[in-house]
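Need the bound structure for nicotinamide-adenine-dinucleotide, inputs here:
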Amino acid sequence: VRDLKIIDSGFYPIYIGENIYYTLNNFIQLDRYKKSRFFILVDENSHKHCLPRLNEKVSFLQNAKVVTIPPGEQHKNISTCAYIWNFLTRENADRHSVLLNLGGGVVTDMGGFAAATFKRGIRYINVPTTLTGQIDAAIGGKVGIDHENLKNLIGVFKNPQAVLIDPDFLETLPDEDMVSGFAEIIKYGLISDATFWYFISKVSFDEHSDWQQLISRSVEIKSSVVKVDPVERKYRKVLNFGHTIGHAIESTILEAGAKPVSHGKAVATGMICATYISEKKLNLSRASAMQVYHYIKENIGILPGLAAYRERIFDFVLNDKKNEGDKVLFTLLAGLGHAIINQEVNREMIENALDFCIDLEGSHDG
Ligand SMILES: NC(=O)c1ccc[n+]([C@@H]2O[C@H](COP(=O)([O-])OP(=O)(O)OC[C@H]3O[C@@H](n4cnc5c(N)ncnc54)[C@H](O)[C@@H]3O)[C@@H](O)[C@H]2O)c1
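Answer from helper R.:
Posting the output first, comments after.
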């Protein structure tokens, strides 16, 4: 059994390791929860794959009421949220109650939001069960739901009481979801820690086995960014590296009614574009940029068929909610492990970056 890693986010503790259950058992019996009843939110998949392990290891939770929602982003909406509120109401949850979110980013985002709004706010704990959840969604306090086809349109900032991460939950996670989370791990290295980037990129995705290490460093990086800028006034924007074009790609594909792509894959393509723009605009060295292009192409892949969407992707980039006025602002790399926010980028650069990606996708030598 590996040691338990503890990270202080500045607002709440984050525990990482297969041994989180002992800590969770003690945590929920603290004085501050003396009057609390516990509720567990799961989706059908985390119910099947993760709840039995939680119940077996944390006897204190065995009598907690469980609310189960259908899986998938399409259910991260106001009607599922109402279903959770109704459940809590029917079960007489009061303001001392605590909601434990056991699942991926959909469960922690929506559970956090349901908790933040129920009776003007009850407390919640996150036990994330996907790689994306463990390194990203469950930490940082952004909670919310999608609305009218717009992602995360409705939401608030509300921190969990604690986040407990068991990397063993990843054993049942489909490959596609592992790769998607891995793209964000790459992002953490690129934006703020060259040593971590070398650690990640020295072996292929398939050869990585020490997920606890990859998760721990990612969580440290995300929480250190959030600590200095909890409500995204400025510096938190470094986390958007690859996301301006990544989101635009996701929206374009959604609008076209084509098969949705994973968030991580879209962000990976966005990171290649942003790296290309960094090379042109910030003098990121060719050698550094080549490492990024090659590693992402080989280990995540570049989305095929982008040429058909080129114009629409640009329209969506222009409408990105992170822009200021009509300026298109990107997070770019001045070097590996060193991101700079608020870089103004023009249409020509974006088009060139997309063309570069389209060529790279079609080439066979990476
Ligand atoms: N709040 C934030 O800061 C933040 C950051 C990143 C992403 N997000 C949000 O997170 C969501 C994406 O997260 P996600 O990728 O975890 O999606 P998800 O919650 O839909 O999980 C992906 C799939 O894995 C299943 N699953 C969960 N745990 C499993 C396990 N241990 N074994 C097998 N299957 C399992 C789920 O049921 C689902 O089908 C998006 O809604 C995104 O907006 C939020």
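Comments: Residues 141 and 158 are 5 Å apart (CA to CA). Residues 43, 45-46, 49-50, 71-73, 76, 103-107, 109, 129-130, 132-133, 136-137, 140, 142, 151-152, 169, 172-173, 177, 180 surround nicotinamide-adenine-dinucleotide (CB under 6 Å).
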